[in-house]
Amino acid sequence: MLRKWKLLSSKIGYSHPFFKVREDHVITPTGLEINDYTVWESGDVAQVIPVLPNGKLLLVEQYKHGLGEMIVEFPGGFIENAELPEVAAFRELSEETGYTSTDVHKLGTFIHHPTKESGKLHLYVAKNIQKQAKKLAHDSTEDIRLLSVGSDELFKKIQSGEVLQSGSMLGLLLYLQEEQNAH
Q1: CATH assignment of 45-182?
Q2: Which of 165, 178, 170 is nearest to 62 (CA)?
Q3: pLDDT tens per residue across span 58-107
Q4: How many Cβ atoms from other residues are within 10 Å of residue 155's Cβ?
Q5: What 3 state SS string does the chain have?
Q6: Do residues 77 and 88 touch, judged by C-beta distance below 8 A?
Q7: Rounded to an integer, what distance in angstroms lies between the CA atom of residue 142 and that of residue 98?
Q8: Could you state, in order of their start, the residue ranges of all structural domains in the chain?
Q9: What's the pLDDT band for 142 if we cut at 50, 70, 90?
């Protein structure tokens, strides 16, 4: 029978507004005692698959310093304070793309990296997105280029390694499955 680890104590080892690391003292079911098991207490993330009226998908390309590379992905970001995931998805769509939609629904909630991270990924799809009259400012650290692609082209970008972000891959698959089931 599988058993959970026993938590003996827990403390915050490092805290910053954007990054918090927890240090746990645990005992595994096999009796192994680990007194400094570290976990990134990451916040939950909302990511949205924006669908233009012509059926093409809107992606963002931006620099991600953690990797030191330009990344192509669907818009998304951390859920702020007591913000609901759906509200965060609307906000990220607006901030990163300048688009909005009245047709947004959830595809699901998923786990990023459960071994060392506590956050979850909330995936949404926004259909028939429309350009806003007034573009909202995105985060001061973001410089974003928008890309409009069909799903076949996006699959090619994934296969070539141009799109590496797992939430974008999962979002595309779930969106296409949903579209297939609707027909």
Answers
A1: 3.90.79.10
A2: 165
A3: 999 999 888 899 999 999 999 998 899 999 999 999 999 999 999 999 99
A4: 16
A5: CCCCCEEEEEEEEEEECCEEEEEEEEECCCCCEEEEEEEECCCCEEEEEEECCCCCEEEEEEEECCCCEEEEECCEEECCCCCCHHHHHHHHHHHHHCEECCEEEEEEEEECCCCCECCEEEEEEEECCEECCCCCCCCCCCCCEEEEECHHHHHHHHHHCCCCCHHHHHHHHHHHHHHHHHC
A6: yes
A7: 13
A8: 6-40, 45-182
A9: low
Residue type at 81 in one-letter notation: N
Q: What are phi and psi of 155, to 5 degrees?
A: -60, -40
Report the amino acid identity of residue 167. Answer: G
pTM higher than 0.85: yes
